[in-house]
Each structure stands twice: as structure tokens, then as C-alpha cells.
Amino acid sequence: MYQADIAIVGAGMVGLALARSLKEADLSVILIDTTAIAKPLSEQPELRVSAINAANKQVLEQLGVWQHLDQQRLSAYTQMQVWDQDSFGRIQFSSEEMGTSELGHIIENQSLVNALHHQVSQQSNVQMLPSTHIAKVLTGQSETMLMLDNDEVVSCRLLVGADGANSAIRKYANFPLTFKDYGHTAIVATIKTAAPHGKVARQVFTPTGPLALLPLSDPNLCSIVWSQNSQQADELLALSNSDFAKALQVAIEGDVGEIAVESARMHFPLTMRYARQWLSDGLVIIGDAAHTIHPLAGQGANLGLQDAFALADSLQKLAAEQAAFHQARQLRAFERARKSEAVKMIAAMESFKQLFGGSHPLKKLIRGVGMCTADAIPSIKQRFITQAMGW
Q1: Residue 201 in 3-state DSSP?
Q2: pLDDT (tens digit, 9 = 90+) per residue, 352-390?
Q3: Element (H, E) at 7
Q4: Which cofactors does the annotated protein need, by name (predicted)?
Q5: Is 370 in contact with 377 (CB distance < 8 Å)?
Q6: 361 vs 96, 357, 368, CA distance in Å?
Q7: Sign (positive/negative) of CA torsion 30, 35, 41, 45?
Q8: Where are the beta strands (DSSP E) in 165-253?
Q9: How many CA atoms within 13 Å lie on the side-chain side of 51?
């Protein structure tokens, strides 16, 4: 039997970030995942990437994780350009305006997982169980038992579900879920551009959905996230690589020159999920298990990391006070604060999607005027970029 104060199910970046954040806590941790955790990076950039903001970078540095990222695969972006297709609406942000060296970093998800794993594996208070499946969960007054499919048993006081959008832990807890089909499919790929990206993150809003070009470490490689309505996405996915590249060039309005597709194209439907309850006695959920949002602002990973850091802070304080950290009443403040942040982000993404969707002339005029006004007023612009950087 394995015994620990906390069992974290899900060893992606959020679950690992929680474990790493508990490095100084007088708490024992078991980390469980259904697959291997650390994996070698492929020669070509991984398809799943995240834009990590400055606030989370700072925390990851303090945790000794940032220093172990593969620096050759790390890409800072110093500018953000956002515009409305076939319109005068445009806004641009730069690190120079903020007095910083960069606005954020594009990181391959597996690269961050590997760096977190490297540090967590050296913690004496953490035991990892990769390639392990949970067969059954049994909850009691002060203890939760996880029956594993290899006939082993894990006993813990607090079970943390960090196991993604289709969280088995959330389903087990029967937490009520609000969800909405965005009606969009995200197409993800790596592309090569004739013109260097110049460390600029680009996003163009088309009538059928937004397209983001995220700069990678190679000056001519970008990761794309093209969110399109489902019918348009199906049509794009049916195209050959060369025709898909031409469609990209049209959508981005030739901003980076000729484009070539350098990878397979991955796609997935986009759904908003919001768990109306995040905790009960002995159980809490965080990250995508608690919320998923539209990727148009690139804030999903940042929101999940902030959940992990906030939960770790609460648990450390409760443990230091010798309080019953596994009881729901002790974690209510954490739940209220993080649910509030999730709701605000969900509402903001829905507002952006509604405002920038469609090509009605009046909507395009409103968007254009709004973007140009924001670009011309430093205080408004700074508020936007400060929030994007996580401050």
C-alpha cells in the first residue's frame, strides 16, 4: 500500500506544478498518471505549445524549473499584433512599451513537463506512479483509497484531480458541470514562413474564427492555432498541405510571406467547461478538470498553472498551522478566488468570440474603432497587456 497526505491524479504541467510548489511543505505527495511522464522531445517542434505569461515564468523560476527548460526550444515573443481581417482595426503591443525584455514565451508543453519532472523527481516528499490506472475510488471521513488496476492501493487524505478536460476524478465526484460547444474546431500545426517571425505573436480575427501564429525558436517556424467554425475547419482539413498553406497566407494577409506546412495537422473541438463545484471533503479539482476556455487569448495553460500555485499556497499554510487541509471548509477561500478568475476569463473569451465573429459591416466598424482607439490610448493598452502578462 502507498500512503501519502496528497494524491495528485494527472502529471501534466498543472499536476507537476502543484507537486513542485509543495517542495517545502511538510506534506507527502503521490503523483499518478496513466502514461509515462517525461518523454524525449521530437526533432521537430511538438504540436502542443503554450504561451506562458511573465507572472507564471517568475514563479517557475522561483521553483527552479525554468532553468531546466531546453533553452534551444524556448521562444520569447517581444511583440503582439492583433487585427481584424479586411478591416482597419489593429492593435500592437511591445515589450519596449512595458519596459521588459519580453511579453511572454512560447513553450512546447512536453518541454515544460520534462523540466517540471526533472525537479519533482528529486523531491524527497514526492513519489511518482507513471503508467498507472485507477480502477476505483473509495472515500471515507478522513481518508480516500485509490484502488489501482495492478491491485495496489493508494491511501491519501486529499485527492487532487488535475487530469484534464475529461477528468475521471471530476466525474467520480459528480461535480455539476456547465459546458458550451463553441462551434469551433482548432487546427494545430507547425509552419515555415518565408519572412522571419521577428519574435512577434500574431493573431488575426477572420469572420469564421481567429488564427494565431506563435513564434518558435527557429526564426522561420511558427506554431499555428486556427480556430474555425466546424464546417470551415472540415473544408480546411480536407485540403492538401500546399492548398492549406495558401489558405493560411490569405487568412494572415501575406504578413509573413510564403508559407509551407512542416508537420501533421492536429485538430480538436473547442468546448467551454466550468465545474460549478471544485471541492468536497477529501477532494479538489484544478486546471482543465475545473475549466476549459477558448484558446483565442492563449490563457488556458496560465489559468491552470495559477490554480496549482494558489492551491499549493493554501495547503502549505494549512499544513503549517496543523489544520485539516483535506476538509472542504478549509479550502473555500481557494475555491472562491480561483472560480472567480475562471469565470472572468470565460466571460472575456465569450465576449471576444461574439464581438469578433462574423463580417457584418456594423460589427466590423465597431471592432475597428475599438481596436484603433485602444491602440492610441496608452492607459487602455497598458491595462490589456498587463493582464495578458498575468500581473
Answers
A1: strand
A2: 655 566 666 656 666 666 656 655 666 655 666 666 666
A3: strand 2-9
A4: FAD
A5: no
A6: 34, 12, 10
A7: negative
A8: 177-193, 200-206, 209-215, 221-229
A9: 29
pLDDT score for 354 = 59
Q: Is 166 exposed, middle or buried (0-12, 13-18, 19+ CB in 10 A)?
A: exposed
Distance of alpha carbon 8 from alpha carbon 160, whole angstroms: 5
What is residue 79's DSSP assignment?
A: E
Instruction: Tell me which residue of 178, 177, 52 sits closest to 111, measured CA to CA.
Output: 52
Q: Edge-to-edge, what's the strand order for the sheet holding 49-53?
A: 49-53, 104-108, 75-77
Query: Percentage of the chain surpassing pLDDT 90?
Result: 74
Distance CA 278, CA 284 (A): 6
Query: What are the CB-based long-range contacts (under 8 Å, 24+) for 24-27?
Result: 24/316, 25/125, 25/312, 25/315, 25/316, 25/319, 26/319, 26/320, 27/125, 27/315, 27/316, 27/319, 27/325
The x, y and z cell numbers of residue 270, run together, are 473547442
Cell of 310: 494558489
How many Cβ atoms from other residues are within 10 Å of residue 354's Cβ? 10
Q: Is the pLDDT of residue 280 over 70?
A: yes
Task: Measure the CA–CA gap between 29 and 359, rounded to whole angstroms.
Answer: 52
**Of 259, 121, 253, 284, whose CA–CA distance to 190 is shortest?**
259
* Residue 99, C-alpha cell as written in the block: 519596459
- Contact present, 356 and 210 (Cβ < 8 Å): yes
CB-CB contact of 8 with 30 (8 Å): yes
Kindly report the number of other CB atoms within 10 A of residue 135's CB atom: 11
Could you tell me the three cell numbers for 248? 493560411
Round to whole Å and give the CA distance between 123 and 287. Answer: 22
Mind giving me the DSSP string for 115-139?
Answer: HHHHHHTT-TTEEEE-S--EEEEEE
What's the pLDDT tens digit per position in 78-136?
A: 998 888 876 666 778 888 877 888 999 999 999 999 999 999 999 999 999 999 999 99
Measured distance CA(7)–CA(126) in Å, rounded: 10
- Round to whole Å and give the CA distance between 370 and 364: 10
